[in-house]
Design brief:
Elements lengths: L6 H21 L7 E4 L2 E3 L1 H17 L4 E4 L10 E9 L1 H6 L5 E8 L2 E9 L4 E6 L4 E3 L2 E2 L12 E4 L9 H14 L2 E3 L4 H9 L5 E5 L3 H13 L3 E3 L12 E5 L4 H12 L10
Parallel strand pairs: 3-4, 10-11, 10-12
Antiparallel strand pairs: 1-2, 4-5, 5-6, 6-7, 7-8, 8-9, 12-14, 13-14
Helix pairs in contact: 1-2, 4-7, 5-6
C-alpha cells in the first residue's frame, strides 16, 4: 500500500476534531455517567463517542487498514493497522484534572510508521512520521541533553489494578526518588512520551500498558532522538506491556536500574 503524501496532516486533523469534541464535553461533564470497566479502570460516553468518530474518519482515509483500539468499537488486524486511544488519561478527564490526550498511530508489520498525540488541555499537537523527525505544533522537537540521572526528571505511571510487579516497580521508584531531580506521574502515558520527546522530562518507564497507550508517543520519542525498549533492553515494547524510554544519553544508566530491579532475585514480584 502506498500511503498518501498528506497522511500525517490528515491524522492531525482527525485527532484535533476528536480533541475538540472532548474539550466541549468536559465543560459540562457529569461524573455520574462514568462506567467501570474493571478495578480503577474508567470509561465514559466521551471515550466511546470519540473513538467512533476517529475510527470512522480513519476508515475513510485508509479503507485497507485494520484497527487496534481501546474501546473495541472496531477490531480487525490487517497488514496496516490504526492503533487508537481516543482519550488517554480518562481518570484525569472525569475528575477535571488537565492532561488527557488523543493518540493515533499507524502500524505496519510491527513498526510504527506515523503517530499523532494531541494533548487536549494545552492544545499541543505532537506528531512524527518515520524518518522525518518529530514536531510540536509544527516546530521540530528533540530530547534533552542531560547526561546523568542526578540532573534528570523522570516520568512514570503508577499501577492502578495490576500489582503483580509492584515490588520491582517500587524498588526503581525508590532509587529514582533518591538519585534524580524527582519523579512525575502525569496520568497519560501518551503525553509522558511526548514530554520526553520535547525535553520536559528525560526518561520514562511503566508496565501494564497497552499498544494504544504508547504506539504514537514511542515513534515521536524515537524521531526526537530518544530510545525505546522493553525492560530487558530489547524491542518487545509495543505489545509486551512494558516500556522504558530515555533521551538516549541516559540509556545505560537508566535502563541499568530497570534491568537490575526487575530481574533481581531479592525483589520478588507479588501476586496480582
Amino acid at each position: 500500500m502506498i500511503l498518501p503524501d498528506t497522511i500525517l496532516e490528515d491524522i492531525i486533523l482527525i485527532a484535533k476534531r476528536a480533541g475538540a469534541f472532548i474539550r466541549k464535553e468536559r465543560e459540562n461533564f457529569d461524573y455520574g455517567k462514568v462506567e467501570i470497566k474493571g478495578l480503577n479502570d474508567l470509561v465514559s460516553y466521551v471515550d466511546k463517542t470519540a473513538e467512533e468518530m476517529i475510527v470512522s474518519y480513519l476508515h475513510t482515509l485508509l479503507p485497507e487498514a485494520g484497527f487496534i483500539v481501546e474501546e473495541n468499537t472496531r477490531s480487525e488486524k490487517k497488514e496496516y493497522n490504526w492503533i487508537v486511544d481516543p482519550l488517554d488519561g480518562t481518570t484525569n478527564f472525569v475528575h477535571g484534572i488537565p492532561c488527557y490526550s488523543v493518540s493515533i498511530a499507524l502500524e505496519h508489520r510491527g513498526e510504527i510508521r506515523a503517530g499523532v498525540v494531541y494533548e487536549v488541555s494545552r492544545d499541543e499537537c505532537f506528531f512524527a512520521q518515520k524518518g522525518k523527525g518529530a514536531f510540536l505544533n509544527h516546530k521540530a522537537i528533540y530530547t534533552s541533553s542531560r547526561k546523568t540521572l542526578s540532573e534528570s526528571l523522570i516520568a512514570t505511571g503508577f499501577p492502578i489494578y495490576n500489582f503483580s510487579r509492584i515490588n520491582p516497580y517500587m524498588a526503581c521508584l525508590h532509587y529514582f526518588m533518591e538519585h534524580t531531580h524527582g519523579v512525575r506521574r502525569i496520568g497519560s502515558a501518551a503525553t509522558d512520551l511526548c514530554y520526553l520527546a520535547c525535553g520536559r522530562v528525560d526518561a520514562f518507564f511503566e508496565y501494564n500498558l497497552n499498544a494504544w497507550d504508547i504506539a504514537a508517543g514511542a515513534l515521536i520519542v524515537k524521531e526526537a532522538g530518544g530510545t525505546v525498549t522493553d525492560f530487558s533492553g530489547k524491542e518487545n515494547w509495543l505489545f509486551g506491556r512494558e516500556i522504558s524510554c530515555t533521551n538516549s544519553l541516559l540509556d545505560e544508566e537508566f535502563n541499568g536500574v530497570i534491568k537490575k530491579n526487575f530481574n533481581a532475585p531479592d525483589v520478588q514480584e507479588s501476586p496480582e
